[in-house]
Structures are given as structure tokens and as C-alpha cells.
Design brief:
mainly alpha; 4 helices
Length: 101
């Protein structure tokens, strides 16, 4: 139970991802969404939100793994989630915002 913060942060990130996927992109920094066209906001929100949701789900999965192991394997669960989620987020940034900034 020492990794309870992993669960709480993971669930919070999942909530933010779902919010973004529903079209509310106010949780994304303003400089990261300023070049997104009005008609692309739903697509941008789904792409960035999916990446955020994946990161949160892998953090929750890492918490579950930590319950059954010593906690040594949590990094092995979280790293692929960060890579996949960051890939979706960067794809959305380059595709709809025309760059990272």
C-alpha cells in the first residue's frame, strides 16, 4: 500500500484524459493549443486525451502490479505507458498544433 500515490495520480490523469477526449482541452497549456483550428479541437482533444488516458491507465496498472510484487516491477509497467502515451500526445501536437509550442 506504499504506492497509493501512484493510484491517486493515475486516476487523476485518467480523469484529465477522459475530459480531453470529450472535447474540453482547457487542461492543456494555452501555448500548446493556441494554433489548433476550431474545427480540429475535437480531434486534437481525442488524440491528446487518449495519450493522457494511456499514461494514467499504465500508472494504475503499475499500482496493481505493486500490490502483488515488491514494487520492483512498477517501472517496467510505467515506462511503456509513458512512451505510448507520449507518442499520442506528440502526434496530436504536431498534427493539429503544427509543433510542440
Amino acid at each position: 500500500m506504499e504506492h497509493i500515490t501512484l493510484l491517486v495520480v493515475g486516476l487523476l490523469i485518467c480523469f484529465i484524459g477522459i475530459t480531453n477526449m470529450r472535447g474540453n482541452i482547457k487542461t492543456v497549456h494555452s501555448y500548446n493549443r493556441r494554433k489548433v483550428k476550431e474545427e480540429d479541437i475535437p480531434k486534437y482533444g481525442k488524440t491528446v486525451g487518449l495519450g493522457t488516458l494511456i499514461i494514467g491507465l499504465f500508472m494504475v496498472a503499475a499500482f496493481i502490479v505493486s500490490l502483488y510484487t515488491d514494487g520492483d516491477l512498477t517501472g517496467y509497467v510505467m515506462i511503456p505507458g509513458f512512451v505510448i502515451g507520449l507518442g499520442f500526445i506528440l502526434y496530436g501536437q504536431f498534427r493539429y498544433n503544427k509543433g510542440i509550442l
